[in-house]
Fold each of these.
Amino acid sequence: MKKIISILIIILTVSVSLFAWKELDFASTSQGVIAHINGVFELDVSEFYYANDNEGKGINLNINDENNNFRYLIAPTSTPKSIPGLLIANFSLISSSSDYKLTISHDKLTNKTNHSIKYDYELSTVYSVLRGTSMVERTVYCLSEPESSVLNFNELHGVLMLQNAGLYLRLCNEVTDSGEYESTITLVLESLQ
Amino acid sequence: MKKLLIIVLSFISFSLFATNPVTDYVHVKGYYEEEESSLIFKVWRQNELEDIGRVYHAGDIYLDGDPTTREERIFTWELSGNKNLTVNLTFTITPLQAYSNGTYHIPKHTLKMYSGNTTKTHEFSTATSGSTSYPGYRQGSSGSSSFIIKSAVFKYTNESITTQTPKSGYCTLRVLEYDEDTAGNFDYVSYVTVEFDTV
């Protein structure tokens, strides 16, 4: 009787182990799907181009300074939101799915010593997407929050790839107060699901 | 049971990933250094476009023909700034005078300053000659002179200027009467001094 019980235990153990191997096979397949999504989802933002210019003070915002090479690029236009200004950063985006939206927003350029002094600026986002077999360039503009630029890609169907999309800055009004200024541009990529 | 657990975990994992947005930032830096205000004054001799810069000498005035009937432009000026500025501007103009052998000769004459729609006039009312080594021609000046004639002073206050909208004008001279003994024998000279500052 003891022998029969021992044999049954061995058979059951082998049976459970075999079953467990099947389970692991299945689990491995499931994990593979998750790994696939993670692997091709990426948002890369370049450094701010002029962060270290002028002894680390960044962009010269004086549009009347004849030594300022960027003064025409950052000067307000007579027709707001019509021409991208000074290229300040690039970003790239890769995803296996286009069911995402990218929201780009920014606060105002704020005087570092007197926070009540703020200047708004137009932030333009210029990017190209593959639609069918051709690249289509798009430009969206926004002032500071609560305005934002929303790049919605779900119409593209399939793999999403943006390379070297550009962020451009142009002042809304002439800066007239001395000091150093800073602003933060926030890029949020989120699923539409 | 294990199979179900793995499916559930997979679903939770995917859901967490799908709902958590990916965020990145670009930090923008800039600065503004106020440009120091500067004024540019130009003056031209008579009607010629000869920029004599900051030399406030209106030039020698030659009185040819019949000066009493002629109003002649003697200098043209322009004041501009590198940004929106409010300025005060003062012209001090000595009487027209000729000098010979220790004697100064000052005719009766009129100066007119034209600027925009405004005309300011100053008349040196009498023709005068005198032996003196130091004729007073500046307001408040003194010395061992036998006669004092104050300079003409033309003031422009709280004038708005920019690089695009300078303040400009010109000055004319009309000689009304000579000292008959010396008329026309000398070169007559007037000196102009310009003072300007921002308000």
Amino acid sequence: MSEVRSAALAEQFEDLDQQHEASSLGMWVFLATEIMFFGGLFAGYSVYRGLYFPGFDAGSALLNVKVGALNTALLLCSSLTMALGVRAATLGKRRELATFLVLTILLGLTFVGIKLGVEWHHDYLEHLAPGINFAYEGPNARAVELFFVFYFFMTGVHALHMVVGVSILAVLLWMTFRGRFGPERYNPVEMAGLYWHFVDIIWIFLYPLLYLIGAHH
Amino acid sequence: MSTTAVAPTTGVNYLNAQYGIRSWLLTTDHKRIALLYLGSVTFFFLIGGAAAVLMRLHLIEPQGALLEPATYNKMFSMHGIIMVFFFLIPSIPAVMGNFLVPMMVGARDLAFPRLNLLSWYVYIVGGLFTLYAVVAGGVDTGWTFYTPLSTTYANGNVMAAALGVFITGFSSILTGLNFVVTIHKMRAPGLTWFRLPLFLWAIYATSIIMILGTPVLAITLLLVALERTFHVGIFDPALGGDPILFQHLFWFYSHPAVYIMILPSMGVVSELVTCFSRKRIFGYSFVAFSSVAIAVISFLVWGHHMFVSGQSVYAGLVFSALSFAVAIPSAIKVFNWTATLYKGSVSYQAPMLYALGFIGLFTMGGLTGLFLASLATDIHLHDTYFVIAHFHYIMVGGALMGYLGGLHFWWPKMTGRLYPDGWARFSALVIFIGFNLTFFPQYILGYLGMPRRYAVYPEEFQVLNVMSSAGASILAVGYLIPLVYFIWSIRYGPPAGPNPWGAKGLEWETPSPPPTENFEEVPVVEEEAYAYGEKEAHVV
Amino acid sequence: MAAHVVAKKTYFTVFATLIGLTALTTYVATIDLGPLNIVVALLIAMCKASLVVLFFMHLRWSSRLMHVVGVAALFWLAILLALTLSDYRTRPWTPAGKPWGTSNIQFNR
């Protein structure tokens, strides 16, 4: 080893390219596992929607499409700021990176706040929380309840992923202030970006499956 | 002069580079993590084995000789959960995979060493939850956690056990991820895909299953936990749910999980058969691709566990046909191993005895699997001892024989010591005999109609049950012998030298035990795997 | 390291398209298209997801291996959905069973 090893290079790797490709591949593979994780939920959802179509329709009609659309827009916005943040990191622009990280964190927190504080709270007051206070007068009550089981569980697991994402971004922000990133060392930001966009994609599918299927009422 | 100063004459290796409990618990060295796994899977194997012994003792008498029926239920559940999730699934990948993947690709470590250590801790935390479930009174759902038994009716510690399995799943996912990235990105110069040892192809295929299957089990167990906690009707038919959906999601992982157990063993056998026949493998690319084919097809067959569950018969037809398809890549492997033996200079050292045992027992297990994959015969054999015998031929006769074979093969590399070969051959023989005596009668019992998971049975089944229990005691002795001589060899075994078997492969080109950085300098690979007999051919 | 730097303009264009598609799918959902509603909604969702993957996640500029990983994950998801639904979708094909001895199936001798 005559060449000088970069401080950003972990000892098991030969060079920065190898390290970068390894972490990208690792992240993509991890996202593949996440697809299968949510995939189990999507499979369950599809089965029951097929079996109990009217109930799922009626359940979906009880959700507020406007809030759902607003949240979708917020999340897409956060994906944009995240992508711009990664771009700033690759170029070594620390101030810009910090700005975009803060923006992404704020957008993410707003999303979670609306999701839990407004929507879940509202659903709870409407007696739509299965296993806690579910009370629905009308046909297909069991199927509507099943819809809300999936609604709460899917959005809950998604919100949990958001919280994890926000925490990761907070750590990255702290690392940015400590001057840990530079044009040679931005892997963590890039990986966090991939994760963030993935969580966005899950929502892109949850939005129509939960909010829109009953919107024609 | 300068070169000799660099040469590793000091005898520093990964075992004595650092001392103290901290140096083990905080290590990121893949070889040390492999040994951590070795210790922990052995611990779980002994617990799971003890449960099996109690079950077999109980079944000596038709009315049950030992346990309360409820205790018996907990015993087989514990045996299943621990053996499947805490021994078989981590066994070869986490012990031998961890030790060998970086060495076989000529790398210093796995791609993500800290993640690797984290996997072990995750595994241990999952294990603690499961042990808690056992100590706090046990679980009686079987290892399958079928609903609505697990969600509504079972009173045991289902949550703790399910949580344990859930957590351990992440250990498996992270290990698989690490292997895939390492095999893709860390190969030494010249080590092309078709020069990789077949063990790596097998581990790669296994990792695919771990990565893509395990998350589905995780979410399924979460749904069970949700239903149990909030009494909502995801799987409960009384509340509008469908219990068969649980079976779909469960077997989407748990059928491929069988291949998580058997594929690494197949990889080990490919290494052993070539080394002890002194021949290159017959049909390298067929053996390599059959591993990947098995990994893919294994995801298409899960419905054959559900032929009598109320699943649509049309889906059953498709699943049955696809199940037969798995036989093709499996048979390719068996035929290629036997073709490799043909006209080889075969020597019957202990690892080879295990490999040969594997080939025979796996063939038996695989062929009886076809009985169960056929819709009509499965209706007769479903949930009988025939199923038990079938999957023990695969998981014990196959996966465990491969594990022991691999352990005997690479033990000198791991520890730098030789074990007594005579005792090792003797124990291989004892295990083979004990295994067949235990499980062959169970085929007959199942064919005659004895259902699985029952604490009592009609008197006419006693002879076969006593045979099976007798075999189990022989098997137990067979497993204890290696435990003794392996531990003995650590202290008293003669030094092994870098390559006691005259084997090919990068891991044999470095001292035993290897130095922490595995290789003095990055190795360059210039020949294909298993180039046995190359030099002799050139001399002539 | 060869990092691909994308012009900011590209990101903004993609973002505008995503917002547009969100508005579109929200609007279409209010029209009753029968069974086509879910098809349209999922198609639009797939377009949006592809945009995010290709541009925000840089898959467009990533190596072939990353494409393989992505395709593999979708393939396995398809296996899970297709084979599970194959059971549920074909269950109604089997006529409901009748008690033993009351079958009206006539065998030719």
